[in-house]
Amino acid sequence: MSLLKTKSSKMEFFQGLGKTFMLPVALLAFMGLLLGIGSSFTSPAVIKQLPFLGNPTLQLFFSFISTIGGFAFSYLPVMFAMAIPLGLVRKEKGVAAFAGFVGYTVMNLAINFVLNARGMLANEEQLRTSGQGMVFGIQTLEMGVLGGIIAGLIVYKLHKRFYRIQLHDSFSFFSGVRFVPIVSSLVLALTGLIIPFVWPLFATGIALIGIAIQKSGVFGPFLFGSGERLLLPFGLHHILVAMIRFTQAGGTETVAGHEVSGALNIFYEQLSKGVPISPQATAFLSQGKMPTFIFGLPAVALAMYHTAAPERRASIKGLLLSGVVATAVTGITEPIEFLFLFVSPLLWFFHVVMTGLGFMVMSMLGVTIGNTDGGILDFLIFGLLQGNGTKWYLVIIVGLFWFAIYYFVFKTVIIKKNLPTPGRIIKYEDTIYSEEELKSKGSSQYDAEEILKALGGKENLISLDNCVTRLRLVVEDDSRVKDEKLKELGALGVVHLDTQNIQVIIGTKVTTVRNELEELL
């Protein structure tokens, strides 16, 4: 039984962790629209092609929404640091989220302290290439979402361990929930002191990758594209991207008598001087992303929609559509990628490989579409509007193949592996409630002691939670649960999801029943 309990606890933890990601991802999807639209229509290249956008009032408006939209991407790690403990803890959720913010900030302060003490703080020009960034005005290591996840998980564990702690009378004021942000700041301060000694190992590995990319010929774009996607969840893709775009790792060419290094620098210099665009430079730029961003990821969203339960498709349509618009129009992919990144490593690896192949195929076909985003706006402005010399039409042909491959693979794997993508696994996501149970207040009074006995007693309960109308339980053995007795005691129904996960339908008074059961436990 102990093995079953451990397995069930792990299952519950990872399912809960996956649900916590949805809160920041939903915000990310909406903010991505604002950021992409605002930044695109304030671009000098776009204004040059569409002069009416240069109107000062329009530019002020687009600058404003770009500023607002950038919030989610600038602070995504801290949102994870707060959302993880908020979603996972059962009690004092507000304190958990507050401790997540405190812990994440202190961790970065400690990292800054170590970097400063060792004389390793980079100047502003070298910030990205050195793998550093700014968090709340603190210069620290660029760890991306992984930094927030590390802080969030540590705070969750600390909250679970200490939120009921009683200290000596001399320190009783700091007991209980007040101790959670205190211990979080101490533990994450120590974590921050350790990270700078470990993180450079990753940066060194990426530098070696940059050298390998330049020496790999036709496979160079594949290594870059797949490497950039592979590193995205860890926030380390910035180093690789910056190296290719702005340093010798991305190539060196002479443009109008001036030597220029870095793929993006070369592209912009050639574009501004009106000279032919170098396919060696654009091989690492927007064109390589387009098969995946404009066609592949929208196919992922369609596969998720078609594999969702029919009655739940309407509820996830908005999430998927906003993600599609963000990735296809502006090249902001996280709202779609985060829907499967933590659900299936197999699908993530497939996505990594397909992104790399997109870079390689576009390069081999001689497409010359530059810039950075890889969305429809880049396709139109730097491809279609630049003439047939960019071979923009090949993006559409290759993209249709990418759409079909992505859709088939994702739909097949989601169904075969029964993956909990949005709208699929009702038992671990939002439950579909009948009109009867939503309106029912249930019995006027419940006998919690008898309900506990009907559930198999204290020793049979592993965890207890509730949603809108149902008790959600993980039990040692569901055969010990007496369904008919629970119905006699006022339950509207009992749902056995598997041998350990059950739901007892109570009605709108479910919170009262849960609280009474928790007192007995």
Question: What do these coordinates show?
Answer:
This protein is an alpha+beta fold and 521 residues long. The protein has three domains: 2-206, no CATH class; 242-426, no CATH class; 433-520, Glucose permease domain IIB (Gyrase A, domain 2). It has helices at 2-40, 44-49, 56-74, 76-88, 93-117, 144-162, 179-214, 220-231, 237-246, 263-273, 279-282, 286-307, 313-330, 334-337, 345-364, 376-383, 393-416, 435-439, 448-454, 483-488, 510-520; strands at residues 132-135, 138-141, 252-255, 258-261, 461-466, 470-475, 493-496, 501-505. Helix 8 runs antiparallel to helix 9. The radius of gyration is 26 Å and the shape is globular.
List strands and helices in order, with pairings.
Layout: H1 2-40, H2 44-49, H3 56-74, H4 76-88, H5 93-117, E1 132-135, E2 138-141, H6 144-162, H7 179-214, H8 220-231, H9 237-246, E3 252-255, E4 258-261, H10 263-273, H11 279-282, H12 286-307, H13 313-330, H14 334-337, H15 345-364, H16 376-383, H17 393-416, H18 435-439, H19 448-454, E5 461-466, E6 470-475, H20 483-488, E7 493-496, E8 501-505, H21 510-520
Antiparallel strand pairs: 1-2, 3-4, 5-6, 6-8, 7-8
Helix pairs in contact: 1-3, 1-4, 1-13, 4-5, 4-6, 5-6, 5-7, 6-7, 7-8, 7-9, 8-9, 8-15, 12-13, 12-15, 12-17, 15-17, 19-21
